[in-house]
Hints:
Layout lengths: L4 H9 L39 H24 L5 H18 L1 H15 L5 H14 L1
Helix pairs in contact: 1-4, 2-3, 2-4
Amino acid sequence: MNVTRGQIVGRGLTCRCPNCGGKTLFQPEKRFRVNPSCPQCGMVIERDEGGYLGSLSLNYGVTIVLYLVPVLLFYVFGIISGIVASVAAGLGAIIVPILLYRPSRSWWLMNYYFFLPHHLPANQRKIADNEDHNT
Protein backbone atom coordinates (compact mmCIF):
# COMPACT_ATOMS: atom_id res chain seq x y z
CA MET A 1 0.00 0.00 0.00
CA ASN A 2 1.43 3.42 -0.97
CA VAL A 3 -0.31 5.39 1.79
CA THR A 4 -0.33 3.66 5.16
CA ARG A 5 -2.86 4.13 7.94
CA GLY A 6 -0.18 5.91 9.99
CA GLN A 7 0.33 8.41 7.17
CA ILE A 8 -3.44 8.89 6.89
CA VAL A 9 -3.65 9.72 10.62
CA GLY A 10 -0.67 12.07 10.44
CA ARG A 11 -2.11 13.87 7.44
CA GLY A 12 -5.55 14.05 9.02
CA LEU A 13 -4.22 15.59 12.23
CA THR A 14 -2.28 18.23 10.26
CA CYS A 15 -5.12 19.11 7.80
CA ARG A 16 -3.34 17.73 4.74
CA CYS A 17 -4.59 15.83 1.72
CA PRO A 18 -4.92 12.17 2.75
CA ASN A 19 -3.69 11.04 -0.66
CA CYS A 20 -0.56 13.13 -1.33
CA GLY A 21 0.03 14.98 1.95
CA GLY A 22 -0.22 18.43 0.38
CA LYS A 23 -1.63 21.39 2.31
CA THR A 24 -4.46 21.59 -0.18
CA LEU A 25 -7.68 20.70 1.64
CA PHE A 26 -8.81 24.31 1.89
CA GLN A 27 -8.73 27.19 -0.56
CA PRO A 28 -6.06 29.66 0.59
CA GLU A 29 -8.13 32.77 -0.08
CA LYS A 30 -11.28 31.47 1.65
CA ARG A 31 -10.64 30.10 5.13
CA PHE A 32 -13.77 27.93 5.33
CA ARG A 33 -14.00 26.73 1.72
CA VAL A 34 -12.90 23.17 0.98
CA ASN A 35 -11.28 22.54 -2.38
CA PRO A 36 -13.46 20.31 -4.56
CA SER A 37 -10.30 18.36 -5.42
CA CYS A 38 -6.65 18.44 -4.42
CA PRO A 39 -4.70 20.79 -6.73
CA GLN A 40 -1.56 18.63 -6.35
CA CYS A 41 -2.81 15.09 -6.90
CA GLY A 42 -6.36 15.59 -8.23
CA MET A 43 -8.08 13.50 -5.55
CA VAL A 44 -11.73 14.46 -5.19
CA ILE A 45 -12.17 15.88 -1.68
CA GLU A 46 -15.86 16.80 -1.87
CA ARG A 47 -17.14 13.40 -2.90
CA ASP A 48 -20.88 14.05 -2.82
CA GLU A 49 -23.64 16.35 -1.58
CA GLY A 50 -23.93 16.19 2.17
CA GLY A 51 -20.41 14.86 2.65
CA TYR A 52 -19.88 17.57 5.22
CA LEU A 53 -22.50 16.12 7.60
CA GLY A 54 -20.05 13.65 9.12
CA SER A 55 -17.58 16.40 9.96
CA LEU A 56 -20.43 18.54 11.30
CA SER A 57 -21.46 15.73 13.65
CA LEU A 58 -17.85 15.18 14.69
CA ASN A 59 -17.44 18.91 15.38
CA TYR A 60 -20.65 18.97 17.43
CA GLY A 61 -19.62 15.92 19.49
CA VAL A 62 -16.13 17.25 20.21
CA THR A 63 -17.60 20.62 21.28
CA ILE A 64 -20.03 18.93 23.65
CA VAL A 65 -17.54 16.50 25.19
CA LEU A 66 -14.45 18.69 25.42
CA TYR A 67 -16.03 22.06 26.18
CA LEU A 68 -19.65 22.06 27.30
CA VAL A 69 -19.45 19.05 29.65
CA PRO A 70 -16.50 20.54 31.58
CA VAL A 71 -18.36 23.87 31.89
CA LEU A 72 -21.37 21.98 33.25
CA LEU A 73 -19.20 20.06 35.71
CA PHE A 74 -17.53 23.27 36.92
CA TYR A 75 -21.00 24.68 37.57
CA VAL A 76 -22.30 21.53 39.30
CA PHE A 77 -19.30 21.36 41.64
CA GLY A 78 -19.57 25.07 42.46
CA ILE A 79 -16.32 26.14 40.83
CA ILE A 80 -18.12 28.74 38.69
CA SER A 81 -21.46 30.51 39.11
CA GLY A 82 -24.53 29.94 36.97
CA ILE A 83 -24.09 33.22 35.12
CA VAL A 84 -20.45 32.51 34.31
CA ALA A 85 -21.37 28.97 33.20
CA SER A 86 -24.18 30.29 30.99
CA VAL A 87 -21.98 32.91 29.34
CA ALA A 88 -19.10 30.45 28.88
CA ALA A 89 -21.41 27.80 27.43
CA GLY A 90 -23.11 30.30 25.10
CA LEU A 91 -19.88 31.78 23.79
CA GLY A 92 -18.21 28.38 23.60
CA ALA A 93 -21.11 26.91 21.64
CA ILE A 94 -20.44 29.53 18.96
CA ILE A 95 -16.66 29.96 19.06
CA VAL A 96 -15.46 26.36 19.54
CA PRO A 97 -17.24 24.94 16.44
CA ILE A 98 -15.80 27.78 14.34
CA LEU A 99 -12.29 27.03 15.61
CA LEU A 100 -12.77 23.30 15.00
CA TYR A 101 -14.28 23.64 11.50
CA ARG A 102 -11.10 22.99 9.53
CA PRO A 103 -9.73 20.24 11.80
CA SER A 104 -13.10 18.45 11.88
CA ARG A 105 -13.27 18.36 8.07
CA SER A 106 -9.79 16.88 8.00
CA TRP A 107 -10.55 14.46 10.87
CA TRP A 108 -13.63 13.20 9.02
CA LEU A 109 -11.57 12.43 5.90
CA MET A 110 -8.95 10.81 8.13
CA ASN A 111 -11.56 8.53 9.71
CA TYR A 112 -13.03 7.57 6.36
CA TYR A 113 -9.71 6.69 4.75
CA PHE A 114 -8.32 5.09 7.91
CA PHE A 115 -10.99 2.40 7.64
CA LEU A 116 -11.04 2.33 3.83
CA PRO A 117 -7.44 3.07 2.76
CA HIS A 118 -7.94 1.23 -0.52
CA HIS A 119 -10.28 4.07 -1.61
CA LEU A 120 -7.34 6.49 -1.84
CA PRO A 121 -6.26 7.02 -5.46
CA ALA A 122 -2.60 6.42 -4.54
CA ASN A 123 -3.49 2.99 -3.16
CA GLN A 124 -5.76 2.14 -6.09
CA ARG A 125 -2.94 2.68 -8.57
CA LYS A 126 -0.75 0.33 -6.57
CA ILE A 127 -3.47 -2.35 -6.60
CA ALA A 128 -4.05 -1.88 -10.35
CA ASP A 129 -0.28 -2.17 -11.01
CA ASN A 130 -0.12 -5.41 -9.00
CA GLU A 131 -3.05 -6.87 -10.96
CA ASP A 132 -1.31 -6.03 -14.26
CA HIS A 133 1.87 -7.80 -13.15
CA ASN A 134 0.01 -10.88 -11.92
CA THR A 135 -1.78 -11.57 -15.23
